[in-house]
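Following up on my earlier thread - several people asked me to post the actual chain instead of describing it. Fair enough. Here it is, all 181 residues.
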Amino acid sequence: MLIRMDAIPEEGLALDLEEDGGRIVEYIAGADFSIPSTVKAALTVRTVDKSVYIGGEVRCAITFECGRCLKEFSVDFQSPVSVFFSRRGLQESESESERELKAGDLDVNPFDDDDAGAGIDTNRVIASQISMEMPMKPLCMPDCKGLCHKCGADLNKGACGCGVEEHVDRRFAALKDFKVK
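Reply from S.P.:
Thanks for posting it. Predicted structure:
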């Protein structure tokens, strides 16, 4: 859904959105997860001093591949949304081609609202919020043991029995029998 600044009433908008998870993932470059169900968002949109504030919450189920054992698993995702948007022209003066960013500038997202059909795309807001909350290395459980590096057996199910010896780096072999008194 596109939100144009001139379409936001003074009291704001309350939006209950549902979007196909596959469509939201399309907005996320290099996504290594899937959203097999519907993404639900309850958003409040208000204008604040010639800017737009979007707040609320996003909920969905996300499917990952475990970074250690490669099993597919799903988690329920829930995250608050709090984003400010400002028209591009309001953020920079026409005489400045380059300017130093201030701390407050990092919290504001620019958008074009002048062109027909332009505005703030709620799907992009939702996709951005989801992508910021994704773990770097998703794990099916915190103590996942992963796969045996020799035979590929799932070590969460038990020892593999392939006879993998404990590897001791020979540079540290002398420390193997070291005892602290």
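The chain has two domains: 2-132, 145-181. That should answer part of your original question.
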